[in-house]
Structure prediction request, 227 residues.
Amino acid sequence: EAQVTQNPRYLITVTGKKLTVTCSQNMNHEYMSWYRQDPGLGLRQIYYSMNVEVTDKGDVPEGYKVSRKEKRNFPLILESPSPNQTSLYFCASTWTGNSYNEQFFGPGTRLTVL
Amino acid sequence: SQQGEEDPQALSIQEGENATMNCSYKTSINNLQWYRQNSGRGLVHLILIRSNEREKHSGRLRVTLDTSKKSSSLLITASRAADTASYFCATVPFMNRDDKIIFGKGTRLHILP
Prediction:
């Protein structure tokens, strides 16, 4: 089954404790992206990757890191989480050719930073 | 920079009625996409319309695109309780531009029994 998986689905942590949210897709998509969703703000892009070893900042990259060492995986790293990073996070992927196509979203990771 | 802006922010209609949501954007696009999100879940792609298309249908969904007005509308006909969800438009740039895929803040649709 074609899908995007994220882990963990729920996470409660404390300020400053490094964490990683994993994202994996099995569709051989080139493009992968991380979003955060906050009430009243919609979805905002954190980072995206056009392909292996190619990553770029989205609209709200501060406080986050990503890596793309393999095509299927795109982990989101919070080196020193802060309470303002409490949010619902989504990973998404799509194939590209001469344009961006429909994105496939993961189920989301609800993160609470105390 | 915010690109897609949905209107209205929230919409409540009776089951069986049609629901119309609008999306406005600011710069030229390659395509525009509509997504649905059930509460707290991942977004699901509904329909994609390219910049050279004016109208597209998929089941009970009808999407229009007016590039001269930089706007799109999503029409859901004969609404059902299961259509209760948030709906987002996403504007997609041409790949050779630095612009990013931008999601709007969404329209919350509530179908009343």
Notes: The two ends of chain A are 36 Å apart (CA to CA). The first strand of chain A starts at residue 4 and ends at 7.
